[in-house]
Amino acid sequence: MSEITLVLLGAGASSRFTLPVKKQWLWIGDEPLWLYVLHRFTSFAQFNNIILTAHPQEKPLFEKYSNALVIPGGNTRQESIRNALEHVRSEYVLISDIARVCVQKEVIERILEQKGKADCIAPYVPAVDTVMYKNETIDRSEVKLIQTPQLSRTKILQEALLQEREFTDESSAIKALGKDVVYVLGSEKQRKLTYKEDLHYLDCLQPPANTQRVGMGFDVHAFCEGRPLMLCGVEVPHHLGLAGHSDADVAIHAIIDALMGAAGFGDIGELFPDSNMEYKDIDSKVLLQKTATLLRQCGFTIVQIDLTIMAQAPKLLDFKPAMQQTIASLLELPPHNLNIKATTTEKLGFVGRKEGIAAQAIATLKYFDWRKI
Ligand SMILES: Nc1ccn([C@@H]2O[C@H](COP(=O)(O)OP(=O)(O)OP(=O)(O)O)[C@@H](O)[C@H]2O)c(=O)n1
Ligand SMILES: C[C@](O)(CO)[C@H](O)COP(=O)(O)O
User: Fold this and answer.
1) Which residues contact 38 (CB under 8 A, 6 or more apart)?
2) Is the CB of 301 within 6 Å of ligand 2?
3) pLDDT under 50: residue ranges of the chain
4) Which region ranges are annotated with the description 2-C-methyl-D-erythritol 4-phosphate cytidylyltransferase (predicted)?
5) pLDDT score recorded for residue 12
6) ipTM of this complex prediction, to 2 decimal places
7) Ligand 1 mutation pick, 6, 7, 9, 148, max ligand atoms within 8 A of CB
8) What domains appear along the chain, each with residue ranges and CATH number?
């Protein structure tokens, strides 16, 4: 099987799915859908090389969950395939939509049995409804509804994708080149997840696990002159501010790190590198908003956050309600699910010497329950 590379396409915008969560990031048990599909394929057959296409912003997130080669997708499905093919060295490539979640073992076997007999092997299901084409009824017995995975000769597919036209799948591109395509019976169970209503037809899906994902964040910033002291998005009157690439809101940074930790997505520095001038002096509420949006798109719901700010001065008690309201409303959290503590360190350590402020946060996430849509 080593002459076959598996390419799974997961870089789509999921726009027709019309939910805040992207379809490739629905959680199946404790796995995102794209990883569930990958494991489904590898449970059915051996592939020496596996390539995933992901939205460029999600490439590092895919890489946190899989050792497969993750390639940034393009603006179209075909562009994503072109990007992936640059990394394919095998004679054949098996390409499938991650959106065709319930890929069937027997379909894969039927495809592989035909390997070598044509330039592309594609599964199809027959049309069972009356078919109109350009307002004329056509003979439905001649209609094939094409599915994936599709097995192509790599070099033929690369040549086919050089054609000027944009194709919606490999078999049509290869057929347009005048090459051979063999069609094998697919399965209704391989329905493509396009609209949220399609979920009701995908009987291979297990519900999201009721796992509580927990993350911890910690950050420190030194005091400096000439900057406002921002904590939880609130300016606290003080003769010193905090130094940093952004507005140095150490409390929000700890919350972001806790959220990223709970999601298994790494840390704030990976998401918002301080080498990026886009984030110079940025309002950290913007960074927190971006983080919350990313977590929502990736199928997470924020459950609760507990924050501790360690500062010898200034006193923060009077500012805690505004801090809680600011962050809770930004995260669309009930305020009582965001607890903010402030403490001194009894004049011990760098905090006690008023050299800077530290913050620690614990965040809990759960998976968006797609069964309720
Ligand atoms: N630029 C793209 C577009 C699509 N895909 C993948 O190709 C498969 C089929 O595409 P589709 O079902 O249309 O997914 P989306 O493009 O995300 O859907 P939509 O058109 O609703 O945005 C999906 O697994 C999708 O992730 C991709 O890798 N790169
Ligand atoms: C490749 C495909 O699944 C074959 O039916 C289909 O063309 C993908 O279409 P999409 O609009 O990119 O989902």
Assistant:
1) 8, 50, 52, 66, 68
2) no
3) 1-2
4) 1-213
5) 97
6) 0.95
7) 9
8) 4-201 (3.90.550.10), 213-372 (3.30.1330.50)
